[in-house]
Amino acid sequence: AGGAYVPLDPDYPQERLASMIADANVSILLTQEQIRHLLPNHEAQIVCLDADWNVIAQQPPSNPVNSRLQPENLAYVIYTSGSTGQSKRVMIEHRSLVNAYFAWEQTYQLRATRTCHLQMASFSFDVFSGDLVRALCSGGKLVLSKREFLLSPKELYNLMVLQQVDCAEFVPAVLRNLVEYLEQSQLRLDFMKLLVCGSDVWYGQEYQKFRSFCGSQTRLINSFGTTEATIDSSWFEATTHSELASEQLVPTGRAFLNTQLYILDVNLQPVPVGVAGEIYIGGASLARGYLNRPELTAQKFVPNPYSQEKGRLYKTGDLARYLPDGNIEFIRRTDYQVKIG
User: Fold this and answer.
1) How far apart are CA 92 and CA 286, in angstroms?
2) The domain that contains 265 carries what CATH number?
3) Mean pLDDT (whole number) for 50-67
4) Contact residues for 28 (Cβ-Cβ < 8 A; gap 6+)
């Protein structure tokens, strides 16, 4: 329909939900009758996907024709916590999300075979959007995991086997627990085609251990990205078992399609190989900016001095360095935040 969505977690306090609804000027609320009472007072039109289903089912299955829809229209607004405690409302446009999908499709070879993707992220995070478009835009199936399964590797593994999951993106903590269960139960992940791990740091010895529980056809990839650059910006895949030292952080790798990564000093000058600098991201996946926060948008999205097309760079706040082989290695946050996505 060409609209933008704002995910509202029903577990959020009503005060926060009320602030998000008012701040984003939400006009329509999609919910379910059983959780409708959790919503704060608001003026938006409510559509209950369960109670109103008979009316919804009578609508035509075709997409509505919207001649006003443009690539730069908003696709979604994600609320993230800022270092000052004030929420950042990241605005992602349709063209950025489409570009991200095609980058995944090319790198992960999503259309090579029919796939079944496991969805583990809360829908209030942008990773959920990534799982959704990777699966459905490539003609695959998306399996939604219950939240409690993330703390129960046995239940999670059984779900993967039952639904014939062959693609999944994990955070390291959940993957560690799953591999520990596999080790104790003498089970394996030979059925996986694509295993992506991201949103936190992990080490070379873990890469090798995770890899040992997979089949020869399984691709094990480390992903790196930010909400402000549409989920993922770079990826790394080891080519040999000897490529990563045990205590080495798994590199964040190289840029996805139509994305540029720069490691710059405080004067926006490139740093030499091996020298720490801040990661700046450019390219087609950059967000429009922060909703209702023009000063912060100007501070974090700066003119790209290396672009002739008046491009922008996103200032990530991540310190990193180039490795001799051209891959990028994350060091730490400049503001000492814990990186969770």
Assistant:
1) 8
2) 3.40.50.12780
3) 89
4) 44, 45, 46, 47
Cα separation values, 327 from 28, 114, 219, Å = 44, 30, 18
* Proportion of the chain in helix, strand, coil states, percent, rounded to 5: 30, 25, 45
Tokens of 257: 């399609």
Mean pLDDT of 18-35: 93
Question: Can you give the residue range of the structural domain that contains 233?
Answer: 70-333
Whole-angstrom distance, CA of residue 135 vs CA of residue 115: 7
Q: Nearest Cα to 268, choosing from 255, 278, 254, 281?
A: 278
Residue 338: inside a domain = no
Check: CB of residue 238 under 8 Å from CB of residue 222. no
Which pair of tokens denotes residue 78?
């994600």
**Angle between helical axes of 204-212 and 172-185 (0-180°, round to 10):** 40
Q: Are residues 262 and 116 in the same domain?
A: yes
Q: What is the per-residue pLDDT for 241?
A: 61
339, part of any domain? no
> What is residue 61's DSSP assignment?
S
In the block, residue with structure tokens 């087609």:
284
Phi, psi of 14 (to 5 degrees): -60, -35
Give the span between the Cα atoms of 64 and 16, in whole angstroms: 33
Q: Residue 310 has what pLDDT?
A: 84
pLDDT tens column, 266-296: 999 999 999 999 999 999 999 999 999 999 9
> If you write DSSP's letter for every residue of 191-223 in order, what string do you get?
T-SEEEEESS--BHHHHHHHHHTB-TT-EEEEE
Number of domains making up the chain: 2
Q: Given 11, 44, 69, which residue is the final one in a domain? A: 69
In a domain, 195, yes or no: yes
pTM > 0.90 = yes
Q: Tell me: do 100 and 53 sit in the same domain.
A: no
Q: Which of 46, 69, 92 is the last residue of a domain?
A: 69
Are 54 and 78 members of one domain?
no
